[in-house]
């Protein structure tokens, strides 16, 4: 890549939310590195966006659950000083109870939703901190605070990503580096085909378009939000949730068992 524009690296850019991020970030003038396994899709997206926006786009075929592919991406994130934005978007979630889920699916969910975003963030952050600029957008889920019997693993991985994002935000508070967690609710993508339950099985009134989701998330990013809940209309609900969390933690610091746990 030869231009001097900032570069955004987007994982899972071959469909759904990631593909819309590619479009919107190209509109904003970023050169792009698009990552996914379906390289044919990446090529088609790349050709279209290059034509429409005149940006430089590199497509990388990578399976983020495969060690060698992850190492190559980590190397790129450590070495390319033009990378200014990492969008950790790739994710999956087979909908199944923990007991019934096969090992391949369970391991893929943990690797893709936890290990990959953590390692990619750790690879890019030292350069961001050194340059005192850069941003990470982690695509989480509202399932971070809702666990159903068929979403245990998925919900747990998204809780991790939210906690990871909030911790990073605190670590980086004195720097110019930004971290945003985006928590979509149901969004019309291929996610549900892979999850094993068709999108049509859900209340369609509660499903957002990918365009609305990403546009709202980017407005939240522009407004400096650390956690963006595009579908939540009452922003006070998140503040109340965070306040309750903080109050609960404060209440743990007593050093003595609560009276209800008195041995009889
Ligand atoms: N759709 C929803 O309702 C919803 C709600 C909350 C959160 N989210 C989150 O949104 C993010 C994007 O999902 P989506 O809804 O846009 O679904 P999607 O259309 O299925 O997109 C998933 C993306 O991840 C990539 N991916 C999957 N496995 C991969 C692997 N092993 N290595 C590399 N890339 C891989 C896919 O590309 P390839 O198959 O080409 O590799 C695809 O580009 C996920 O993190 C998901 O958890 C979605």
UniProtKB/TrEMBL annotation:
It holds the Pfam family adh_short. Keywords: Oxidoreductase. CDD domains: SDR_c. InterPro entries: NAD(P)-bd_dom_sf, SDR_fam. The keyword Oxidoreductase applies. One of its GO terms (molecular function) is oxidoreductase activity. Belongs to the short-chain dehydrogenases/reductases (SDR) family. This is AraC family transcriptional regulator. It comes from Gluconobacter albidus.
């Amino acid at each position: 890549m030869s231009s001097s524009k900032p570069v955004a690296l987007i994982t899972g850019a071959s469909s759904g939310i990631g593909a819309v991020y590619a479009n919107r970030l190209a509109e904003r003038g970023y050169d792009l590195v698009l990552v996914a396994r379906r390289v044919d899709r990446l090529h088609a997206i790349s050709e279209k966006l290059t034509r429409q926006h005149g940006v430089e786009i590199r497509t990388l075929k990578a399976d983020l659950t495969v060690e060698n592919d992850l190492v190559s991406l980590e190397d790129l994130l450590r070495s390319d000083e033009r990378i200014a934005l990492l969008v950790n978007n790739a994710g999956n979630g087979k909908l199944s109870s923990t007991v019934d889920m096969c090992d391949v699916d369970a391991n893929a969910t943990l690797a893709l939703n936890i290990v990959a975003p953590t390692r990619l963030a750790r690879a890019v952050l030292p350069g961001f901190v050194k340059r005192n600029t850069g941003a990470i957008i982690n695509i989480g889920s509202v399932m971070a605070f809702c666990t159903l019997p068929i979403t245990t693993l998925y919900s747990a991985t998204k809780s991790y990503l939210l906690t990871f994002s909030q911790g990073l935000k605190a670590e980086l508070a004195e720097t110019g580096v930004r971290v945003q967690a985006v928590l979509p609710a149901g969004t019309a993508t291929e996610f549900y085909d892979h999850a094993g339950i068709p999108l049509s099985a859900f209340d369609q009134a509660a499903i957002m378009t990918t365009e609305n989701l990403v546009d709202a998330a980017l407005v939240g990013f522009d407004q400096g939000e650390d956690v963006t809940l595009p579908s939540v209309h009452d922003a006070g609900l998140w503040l109340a949730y965070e306040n309750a969390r903080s109050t609960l933690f404060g209440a743990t610091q007593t050093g003595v068992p609560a009276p209800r746990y008195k041995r009889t």
